[in-house]
From TrEMBL:
Keyword Chloroplast: no
SUPFAM superfamilies: P-loop containing nucleoside triphosphate hydrolases
UniProt keyword annotation of Nucleotide-binding present: yes
Gene source species: Caldimonas caldifontis
InterPro entries in the cross-refs: ATPase_AAA-3 (IPR011703), CbbQ/NirQ/NorQ/GpvN (IPR050764), ChlI/MoxR_AAA_lid (IPR041628), P-loop_NTPase (IPR027417)
Protein's recorded name: ATPase
Keyword entries, A-Z: ATP-binding, Nucleotide-binding
Domain ATPase AAA-3: 44-174
């Protein structure tokens, strides 16, 4: 099978996954697309939305569709790191310590209301999100692959919540904002929830998903697009270098190189979902707000003026236009080389 046929097969398989999920989840097209991008690009998702917007339902349905294991951890102030990663337990009968593995040993982990637990608990996810392993009492244990963390946070309540450590926030590939459904979608939601339960079919195995992720890494990215991603991220650190000196007072810290990597990996996955073995500028620009919004540390001045990270990202994108679309024939040739 040639490279083009491989990429078409990936797109078809992910469309089948999406079709099955949408039999249960109504609307939320942007959110669902980002979940599939994260799965293909081996990234993690931070999701912000009020309760009742099908965030948990989406991940549970996805786990059934891909025949993967699913665990949900409700983050609370009294949670301790061992509740997440596991601990050593003394077995009196055997006279030895046994390792009890925590809920992070799964394919899809839902960290519900992650900002309700203190920083030491949130930081317990640092190693597993980056290195796909957990160290307990000096012993290293690998988590199953593929492995995806989807963390949710509620934007309404701030009482009893803790800010996420910057090191952990940076490990999330994207932060997706989930909004309310339209009236038409809500009508369908009520019909579906109050009617007979929909059964979803398992259309992809975890082994097949791992293979799809490998195919995703083979997608062609034109050097001009990598250069554009580097410029966008650099502009969040030194806006004055790109003709945006007025933004400097609003930014305490810009995005890290991990943002640039995530932009390119995500654009590859999005291009693949759209049926192409190469990336176009719109694949990259579509993802910029989701990849950058949680990585910018705003100054007190920005907060005082009610400026959001999205405002700043939009200003940067207006100033730095995307490069011209690479010639279709050139991109196809490079992708199949």
């Amino acid at each position: 099978m040639d490279s083009n046929a491989n990429h078409n097969a990936v797109a078809e398989q992910m469309q089948r996954v999406l079709y099955e999920v949408k039999r249960v989840v109504v609307g939320q097209d942007h959110f669902l697309e980002r979940v599939l991008v994260a799965m293909l690009a081996q990234g993690h998702l931070l999701v912000e939305g009020v309760p009742g917007l099908a965030k948990t339902l989406t991940v549970k349905t996805l786990a059934r569709v891909m025949r993967g294991s699913f665990k949900r951890v409700q983050f609370t102030p009294d949670l301790v790191p061992a509740d997440l990663v596991g601990t050593r337990i003394y077995n009196q009968k055997m006279g030895e310590f046994n390792t009890s593995l925590g809920p992070v040993f799964t394919h899809l982990l839902l960290a519900d209301e992650i900002n309700r637990a203190p920083a030491k608990v949130q930081s317990a996810l640092l190693e597993v999100m980056q290195e796909y392993q957990v160290t307990i009492a000096g012993e290293t244990h690998k988590v199953p692959r593929p492995f995806l963390v989807m963390a949710t946070q509620n934007p309404i309540e701030t009482e009893g919540t803790y800010p996420l450590p910057e090191a952990q926030v940076d490990r999330f590939m994207m932060k997706v904002l989930v909004g309310y459904p339209s009236e038409e979608e809500e009508f369908v939601i009520v019909q579906r929830v109050t009617g007979a339960a929909e059964e979803v079919a398992a259309v992809v195995t975890t082994e097949e998903l791992a293979q799809l992720q490998k195919e995703c890494r083979k997608s062609y990215v034109d050097p001009s697009l990598i250069q554009y991603a580097v410029k966008l991220v650099a502009a969040t650190r030194s806006p004055e270098r790109f003709g945006l000196p007025e933004l400097g007072r609003y930014l305490s810290f810009g995005a890290s190189p991990r943002a640039t990597i995530n932009l390119i990996e995500g654009a590859r996955a999005l291009g693949l979902l759209r049926g192409r073995p190469y990336v176009l500028p719109e694949d990259l620009t579509d993802l910029v707000p989701d990849v950058l919004r949680h990585r910018l540390v705003l100054s007190y001045e920005a907060l005082a003026e009610s400026l959001t990270a999205d405002h700043i990202v939009r200003r940067i994108m207006d100033k730095l236009p995307a490069p011209d679309k690479p010639l279709d024939t050139h991109a196809r040739t490079e992708a199949t080389a």
